[in-house]
């Protein structure tokens, strides 16, 4: 809802048809209006096959739901674009688009700010401002698509915010983005990244949506993890591993573990060895991400030989692993950096 009005972009096709019928209008108008919404229109008057009186009725009862591009930055070092979007209430969020030969991946924000407090992350420095509605997550994709004139093929829910802390809107977003006559982006092309909210992962597993799940682990030891991520005070690594096994059992999907490598913090052999112990035999993959320094914390990237040594240890022990460098490092590297600079 937006005030008293319904946001049309927040509805599935079926729900939109029901809404149109509830206004005393025929079903087929609902289908027509749904398809207009995915042509990224700004105003009801652009719906030129919908009679004026119906457009007026729509305007009285609903809004389409649009966010606006406030700024766009293009990386000179790779094919990354970052967008700052202005929300209807004046808040700003950031979205990243990464273009590859035949793929366009968009990293969406889920909340304005974040309350999880991960030490290496700029998004959390001012805490959580508010959750995004499902349509505000969806519209980030639609606006990038429109701006670049190219279909988005993959989505990562890895921008500002913790998607499972905004659980209902995240699940609704997954439903919306999957709509056959909408964006029609399949679950297997979507990755949801979480800092490890065990009870919510369990709930998600029970839904059996075949999305890719990524867990921010960052240390295989509870005490070290607590220093990096306050959420570790609530959830133990043992419980995270337990719920990951449950997720794999329910969905048959491989889990990705995100591991930000921080110099002298979590990059030692001891950590690599414990990580191997935890993950041995699990259907998983590890992404090693050399940390992006942020102004507010004094974390440093390990030297390349330490990064390679960590990776080799995992590989030697048959844990699939990739080193991932942050994209768009010249236009506000880690999540939340760009938005904070803009404020
Ligand atoms: S890394 Fe993710 S969960 Fe942690 S503070 Fe940043 S946005 Fe929140």
From TrEMBL:
S-adenosyl-L-methionine binds at residues 161-162, 193, 216-218, 292. It holds the Pfam family RlmN_N. GO terms for molecular function: methyltransferase activity. [4Fe-4S] cluster binds at residues 114, 118, 121. Transmembrane segments: none annotated. Its main location: cytoplasm. Its EC number is 2.1.1.192. The active site is at 94 (proton acceptor), 335 (s-methylcysteine intermediate). Keywords: 4Fe-4S, Cytoplasm, Disulfide bond, Iron, Iron-sulfur, Metal-binding, Methyltransferase, rRNA processing, S-adenosyl-L-methionine, Transferase, tRNA processing. One of its GO terms (biological process) is methylation. It catalyses: adenosine(2503) in 23S rRNA + 2 reduced [2Fe-2S]-[ferredoxin] + 2 S-adenosyl-L-methionine = 2-methyladenosine(2503) in 23S rRNA + 5'-deoxyadenosine + L-methionine + 2 oxidized [2Fe-2S]-[ferredoxin] + S-adenosyl-L-homocysteine; adenosine(37) in tRNA + 2 reduced [2Fe-2S]-[ferredoxin] + 2 S-adenosyl-L-methionine = 2-methyladenosine(37) in tRNA + 5'-deoxyadenosine + L-methionine + 2 oxidized [2Fe-2S]-[ferredoxin] + S-adenosyl-L-homocysteine. SMART domains: Elp3 (SM00729). Residues 100-330 form the Radical SAM core domain. Its cofactor is [4Fe-4S] cluster. Specifically methylates position 2 of adenine 2503 in 23S rRNA and position 2 of adenine 37 in tRNAs. Reaction proceeds by a ping-pong mechanism involving intermediate methylation of a conserved cysteine residue. This is Probable dual-specificity RNA methyltransferase RlmN. It comes from Peptostreptococcus equinus.
């Amino acid at each position: 809802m937006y005030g008293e009005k319904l946001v049309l972009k927040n509805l599935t096709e079926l729900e939109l048809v029901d809404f149109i019928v509830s206004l005393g209008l025929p079903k087929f108008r609902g289908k027509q209006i749904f398809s207009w919404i995915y042509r990224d229109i700004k105003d009801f008057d652009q719906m030129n096959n919908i009679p004026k009186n119906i457009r007026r009725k729509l305007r009285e009862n609903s809004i389409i739901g649009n966010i606006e591009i406030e700024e766009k930055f293009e990386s000179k070092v790779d094919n990354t674009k970052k967008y700052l979007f202005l929300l209807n209430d004046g808040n700003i969020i950031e979205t990243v688009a990464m273009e590859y030969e035949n793929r366009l991946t968009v990293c969406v924000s889920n909340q304005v700010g974040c309350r999880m407090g991960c030490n290496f992350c700029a998004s959390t420095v001012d805490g959580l401002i508010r959750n995004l509605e499902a349509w505000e997550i969806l519209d980030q994709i639609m606006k990038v698509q429109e701006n670049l004139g190219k279909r988005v093929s993959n989505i990562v829910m890895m921008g500002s915010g913790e998607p499972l802390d905004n659980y209902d809107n995240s699940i609704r977003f997954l439903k919306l983005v999957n709509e056959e006559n909408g964006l029609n982006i399949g679950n297997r092309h979507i990755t949801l990244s979480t800092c490890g909210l065990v009870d919510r992962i369990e709930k998600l597993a029970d839904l059996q949506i075949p999305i890719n799940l990524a867990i921010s682990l960052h240390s295989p030891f509870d005490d070290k993890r607590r220093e990096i991520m306050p959420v570790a005070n609530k959830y133990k690594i043992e419980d995270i591993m337990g719920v990951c096994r449950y997720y794999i059992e329910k969905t048959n999907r491989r889990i990705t573990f995100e591991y930000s490598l921080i110099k002298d913090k979590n990059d030692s052999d001891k950590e690599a060895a414990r990580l191997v112990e935890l993950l041995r035999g699990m259907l998983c993959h590890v992404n090693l991400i050399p940390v992006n320094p942020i102004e507010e914390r004094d974390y440093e990237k390990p030297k390349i030989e330490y990064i390679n040594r960590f990776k080799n240890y995992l590989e030697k022990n048959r844990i699939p692993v990739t080193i991932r460098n942050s994209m768009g490092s010249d236009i506000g590297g880690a999540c939340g950096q760009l938005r904070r600079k803009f404020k």
